[in-house]
Amino acid sequence: MVVYPWLILSIAFIAIFLVIPVIIFLSLYVTALVMYVYRHRQKLDAKRLLSNQTKWKSLLYVIVMLWEAHGYFWHSYEVDGLDRIPNEGPALIVYYHGCIPLDHFYLMTKILLYKKRFVRSVGDHFLFMLPGSKTLMKELKVLTGPVDQCVKLLSEGDLLSIAPGGCREGLFGDNLYKLMWNNRSGFAKVAFEAKVPIIPVFTQNLREAFIAVKLFQCILKPLYEWTRLPVIPFYGGFPVKLKTFVGKPIPYDPKITPEELAQQTMNAVEELIRQNQRIPGNIWDAFCDRF
């Protein structure tokens, strides 16, 4: 039997980058599980956490440092403009959605580590349908909306993040980095009603880290629109350079409409892409950006 080294290497390469996304999801589950078990063993609810934070903060610090190390060693991750995230008070963070928004998790880690603030996130409904995902979403402070709940969180002084393109942008976007917001303005209505600034965010080379399979998308896209489930397979985990750019905050302005605010935000994110992203994106060039 003839063994072809190039064939073995090719199969190993494909297998590795099909498995890495699974490992990422498992890591998120483990993170949430550790937090969940600790809460219940210590019988800590929200009020008791405020009065007995030492052990909880220690656990949270260990988790944050592990994810910080993962971002640094695997993606040489860094943030430009972290000072634009307020040290206190509410703000709405609006970001571009990659195939897997791992960059947003890294950014949340940075904000928690250096700003001592937890970011609440708006996620797709399907995230709550996965086995065990309710615990995961609860521990990661993810909610599905609606507008009034988001406004309430911001009114209480929290940071909130949302990707207007959502799962559609993540699955059907490509290395041209075109926004797929479909004239959505709900996030702008939230910021307008809560009277808070919007902070635009984009991560360089995000599309080169994880890639959605383009084969059969013409068939699978109608299925997605009908079910709103992530029916597109993806692969990746490529150790490319990831760098998040935090844009200038867009202040609350009572003289404009939510629709105009949504357009301003879209223009701001597109400008971040134009200034900081090589188009079309390329995996090899994105990897070389590390050096």
UniProtKB/TrEMBL annotation:
<dbReference type="Pfam" id="PF01553">
    <property type="entry name" value="Acyltransferase"/>
</dbReference>
<dbReference type="InterPro" id="IPR002123">
    <property type="entry name" value="Plipid/glycerol_acylTrfase"/>
</dbReference>
<feature type="transmembrane region" description="Helical">
    <location>
        <begin position="94"/>
        <end position="113"/>
    </location>
</feature>
<keyword id="KW-0472">Membrane</keyword>
<feature type="transmembrane region" description="Helical">
    <location>
        <begin position="58"/>
        <end position="74"/>
    </location>
</feature>
<feature type="transmembrane region" description="Helical">
    <location>
        <begin position="6"/>
        <end position="38"/>
    </location>
</feature>
<keyword id="KW-0812">Transmembrane</keyword>
<protein>
    <recommendedName>
        <fullName>Phospholipid/glycerol acyltransferase domain-containing protein</fullName>
    </recommendedName>
</protein>
<dbReference type="GO" id="GO:0016746">
    <property type="term" value="F:acyltransferase activity"/>
</dbReference>
<dbReference type="GO" id="GO:0016020">
    <property type="term" value="C:membrane"/>
</dbReference>
<keyword id="KW-1133">Transmembrane helix</keyword>
<feature type="domain" description="Phospholipid/glycerol acyltransferase">
    <location>
        <begin position="78"/>
        <end position="202"/>
    </location>
</feature>
